[in-house]
Design goal:
Layout: H1 27-40, H2 43-53, E1 59-61, H3 62-65, H4 73-85, E2 89-94, E3 97-102, H5 104-111
Antiparallel strand pairs: 1-3, 2-3
Helix pairs in contact: 2-4
Length: 120
């Protein structure tokens, strides 16, 4: 029994690469989206967004989020500030508390970053 024939990229019948189709992200889009991804790349911040997005009212106060973490309120507030600065969360001050809500359009933009074209 002979060994299977090895194909190399220099084979004349083998195409080099799959042709690019669709529209790739522009440099400007990448510059706008990178801070969103950087903010979400932290496990605590990712969980915070998930907790807020899944809350019954669509918003949460720092006091509502403390029990989900073994972190100080100051640390959680810092993470929420990072998410807000990146444009992922809206915030509204009510008395002494600040309530956060997910900016759905920001999450939609992140979710749709790598939409794959349908295969024919």
């Amino acid at each position: 029994m002979s060994a299977p024939e090895e194909t190399t990229m220099s084979d004349p019948g083998l195409a080099c690469c799959t042709p690019l189709t669709g529209t790739a992200m522009s440099a400007e889009q990448a510059e706008r989206v990178a801070p969103l991804l950087k903010a979400l790349a932290d496990p605590v911040r990712l969980r915070l967004v998930s907790l807020i997005a899944s809350s019954a009212t669509g918003e949460a106060c720092v006091c509502d989020l403390n029990d989900a973490f073994d972190l100080t309120q100051a640390t959680i507030s810092h993470h929420l500030k990072v998410l807000h600065s990146a444009g992922l969360l809206d915030r509204e001050k009510r008395g002494v508390w600040v309530y956060y809500a997910v900016r759905r359009e920001a999450l939609t933009a992140v979710a749709n970053l790598f939409e794959m074209p349908a295969l024919a």
